[in-house]
Amino acid sequence: MKRNTWQREAVREALVTADGFVSAQSLHSTLRDGGSPIGLATVYRALSDLTDGGEADSLQSMEGEALYRACTSGGHHHHLICRNCGLTVEIEADAVETWATSVAAANGFTQPQHIVDVFGLCAACSRAAADQ
Amino acid sequence: MKRNTWQREAVREALVTADGFVSAQSLHSTLRDGGSPIGLATVYRALSDLTDGGEADSLQSMEGEALYRACTSGGHHHHLICRNCGLTVEIEADAVETWATSVAAANGFTQPQHIVDVFGLCAACSRAAADQ
DNA sequence: CTGATTTTGACAATCATTCTCAACTGCGCG
DNA sequence: CGCGCAGTTGAGAATGATTGTCAAAATCAG
Lengths: 132, 132
Description:
The structure is a homodimer of 132-residue chains.
Chain A: H1 6-17, E1 22-23, H2 24-33, H3 40-52, E2 56-60, E3 66-70, E4 78-82, E5 88-91, H4 94-106, E6 110-121, H5 123-131
Parallel strand pairs in A: 4-6
Antiparallel strand pairs in A: 1-3, 2-3, 4-5
Helix pairs in contact in A: 1-2, 1-3, 2-3
Chain A binds a DNA duplex (30 and 30 nucleotides) through residues 1-5, 7-8, 23-25, 37-42, 44-45, 64-66.
């Protein structure tokens, strides 16, 4: 049976509050800084539960750590992520979906899964970078 | 100055010999099994040199480890990878390139980079899976 | 060959993530 | 309301990939 604990809620809320992708580690520090004595292992467990349950998305940053985000649209989608501030835009890409499926089929591959993510600098960070 | 050592050559050759993506770890064991007393650190160094020099591609597997492959075409391309046997097909995808660039621009993002890889089961492994 | 400089490799150090396990707690039942 | 127990927590250990350290060994130009 699945229980409701304040820890799970805290993680869910922290995820929603952060408006971009965050690593499990930084989510944990944020919670600790906010006064919760929540454990790191629990944050990881809560995050993977949320991911499994479809309430959150996860992806690997270019530096290799796993990032998480509360996902707004239930369906399948991809992301455009600012590699400086973490700001994220969800993008629909039917074109890419069908391309992936057909390129897989054309080469005899079955059960295609794909990883498609775009990283860049958002408008604000681009400006900041130009200014410096 | 860059020197030529048999270790670097061994890594380059092992990479070419393997016909799909391999992890640094398994490349290391392969070399050791083949009789080379090469060190793990050296394999990692050689691989990142090759990657920097454009002689190899690297990507993150779905399990989180870094995989490497000798790349045949010099240009920018993506991959279709069998998640069972590692067989890899290089795919050109101008459509995806331009899509990524334009979707980034449309949202005010600059300096777009993208990760686009397709995993699946190759024909042989699909058959094997069906048989089991 | 010689000397300077790069490279190597055993091992320690890091870092994210997962595991372990005893203590704890939400929740249904009486 | 109080019990009991299965799901949950959390501190710390364990894991596993990757990177750093540094003395010893190897490379290459002259």
